[in-house]
Input
Amino acid sequence: PLEPTIRQRHRRQPGKKSVTITPEPRRLLLIGEDEDLRESMSDALQGAGFEVSSAANGQEALERLASEELPDVILLDLLMPVMNGWQFCEQRKRDPRLAGIPIIAMSAAVSKDPWSPYYLEVDDFVAKPVELDELVGKLAAFTDNNGEARAALR
Output
């Protein structure tokens, strides 16, 4: 079983009371058409210490991104109705507020080879079926507790 990866840390300074440092939440937006998969992944990722919001397709995701706090990372399925993952990525690149948010694509088809017909300019990808431990490790790389990795990526 996965244990939450965010923990409160206590720092004791000489001659002072201990101080509790609560790391900022690690937020992600999960985009995919399969409602059951979104719910099960959301539950698992929340159990691993992530704050998860979700959208059923790229258009719904853009609407959420326009009205909600921006996530630290986007977890994106590619094959969806209304607006697929490739179309979502094109729209995201055009918006300066969204362009710096890392994307991890979920698909059996995605490739980072620019000559592939399935090429997609994303920061990382996970193959379906998704292995939760692998996914949590990749998400953690983009959402470390102190924000240094996020700042370096944006």
Remarks:
- Residues 1-12, 146-154 have pLDDT under 50 and may be disordered.
- The longest strand covers residues 26-31.
